[in-house]
Amino acid sequence: MTTPTVPQDIYLRHEREWQMLRQAIAEKKPSVEEKQPIENLAPRRKVPLKEQHQ
């Protein structure tokens, strides 16, 4: 039994599409939101653990 393969024209078309996507992502300038640092999702401790658990 042989392994089914993708026709070459379809493979090449998809390769070109992926290449265009990779180029677009590489050339994309980050937006204002992306430039800002991501805040830590977990809240910071206000009291150290030693003092909190007495």
What does this structure look like?
This protein has 54 residues and is mostly helical. It is built from 3 helices and no strands. The longest helix is centred in the first third of the chain and has 20 residues, at 8-27. The model has no long low-confidence stretch (mean pLDDT 78).
Q: Which term fits the overall shape? A: elongated
Distance between the termini: 71 Å
Strand residue percentage? under 5%
Q: By helix and strand content, what is the structural category?
A: mainly alpha
Observed structural traits:
3 helices; 54 residues; 52% helix; mainly alpha; single chain
Task: Provide a concise account of the structure shown.
Helix content is 52%, strand content 0%. With 54 residues, it is an all-alpha fold.
In terms of topology, how is this protein built?
Blueprint: H1 8-27, H2 32-35, H3 49-52
